[in-house]
Amino acid sequence: MNSEPGDKKNEAEQIELLKQMVKEAAEAFSKVDKAETIRLVSHLDADGLSSAAVIIKTLIRENRKYCLSIAPQLTEEVAIQLAAESYQYYVFTDLGTGQFGLLRKHLAANGKKVFILDHHHIQGESAAENMVHANPHLAGIESSREISGAGVSYLFSKALSEKNKDLAHIALIGAIGDMQEDNGFSLLNKEILADAKAAGTLKVITGLRLFGVQTKPLHKVLEYSSEFPIPGVTGSESAAIQFIQQLGINPKSGNGWKKLTDLDDGELVRLATGVVLQRINEKSPESIIGPVYILKHEVDGSPLRDAREFATLLNACGRLGKASVGIGACLGDRKCKEEALRTLGDYKQQISGSLMWYEKALKSNGTLSSSQKKSIILENGMVIINAEDNIMPTMIGTLASIVAKSNGFQPGTFVLSLARAPDDFTKISLRLAGEKLVKGEFNLMELLTTIAATVGGQAGGHHEAAGAIIRTEREEEFIAAAKHHLAARRIEEKITAPEAAAVTPVITP
Ligand code: C5P
Ligand code: ZN
User: Fold this and answer.
1) For residue 75, which atom of ligand 1 is closest to its CA?
2) Where are the alpha helices (DSSP H) in 320-430?
3) Which ligand ends up closest to the CA of 94?
4) What is the per-residue pLDDT across 420-468, written as a single tens digit (0 to 9) for each?
5) N or C: which end of the chain has fewer CB within 10 A?
6) For residues 134 and 114, what is the distance between their CA atoms, to the nearest angstrom?
7) What does pTM read for this prediction?
8) Domains in the chain with CATH codes
9) Is 467 a pocket residue for ligand 1 (Cβ < 6 Å)?
10) Does the Cβ of 458 fall within 6 Å of ligand 1?
11) Whose CA is nearest to atom 18 of ligand 1?
């Protein structure tokens, strides 16, 4: 039932194929005895926690028992540990595809039944006895914008019971966390959005797509608008206040500052028009206005009300070791929501601490002699950040993403980051600086898989964001291999696209 390589299907056929795959997975799962405890394993990011929340709620509704772990890395050691447990049925969400071989070898080959609900790229094997695998790539859905891990989990849950349609909004939080929303949703995410609207859990409004509108004062939101820069306003608090005043809006309300949610309809229109006009020389001035996803059951003014902010909160919980708090927040637990909000504050501090370390390391780089070991290597269209123990392994991907988006490097520059993880492992992340367009054309997962393989490491991910895990003792070797492979791609670029490279580097995969 999986599509053959080169077998091009149209969109409708692909969707049908995926739904059929998920339906078969749900049918196989329905046959599992309710006395069995389901061993659930999920990923630690927003999509992974959303996936876990969807499945947990589904299992509870089915009167099933479960045991959950959130795995930062599904290494061979973790697979061996899981296999040693007494469970018979395992469900992996938002991971498992990249570790298919490991799960087959240690779990399925020993008679355990494995369900994988994932959306990561297929690497090698994808079907085996005792393994049920649902993944959009198996249906020929190749892009990474159409469905998330939580989306696949949701389709599975909906195939078990239509009652679970009220979990659709959680799947969308996962999709947003995985950067799948781009001025709207596409394909399967669009269908899930329709389910969420019909269930009354989410509404879409058109508004300014600025981060923090539910919680931060309006002038602060404009000052920090880095995703959609407002020339002459972003980056300056006083300019932001002046800008609001010039639009005939009083930035203050009583003794405090106004939030976007405090503006009346007329003020909202003036603000939106003013912001677009101020961005008139940008590539797409109006892109700052678009869909905003409101979680209807969350109270007004809470950061949890905006699905984008909810996704950030889940990332915070997962990356700071509070996965269960994030999942509880998804499932509506009040205490978990309160703790998740506190964790969000800690996460912001971790991010600013990571950035401070990075900037300091960047400065001290210039003072080191060529024989001294540098934490940051800048050469040949790449930046390699080796944070060692200075940054948490769960935060090193976030740092790489921020550095890649920071405009500090030419589009097409590789950003590779490393940090030490427990048990003598080193966690690695790879990103590409520049426009989404450049990123979409380049398969970082394949590239990192090749590099990690030279030191016996395991890699995975997507075209635009890849991660890996290697043994710390092989870090130096890995960096040498990375320099070689990344530079080789740069050389290819110069040969194949010399004119384009001068303006916006176009990289050939
Ligand atoms: O950890 P990071 O954010 O860099 O991960 C980027 C992508 O790579 C994620 O989708 C993650 O699931 C994947 N990954 C993986 N195997 C690893 C590490 C990350 O598949 N060992
Ligand atoms: Zn995901």
Assistant:
1) 21
2) 323-330, 334-365, 396-405
3) 2
4) 999 999 999 999 987 654 445 678 999 999 999 999 999 998 888 999 9
5) N
6) 11
7) 0.89
8) 11-167 (3.90.1640.30), 206-348 (no CATH), 366-501 (3.10.310.40)
9) yes
10) yes
11) 467
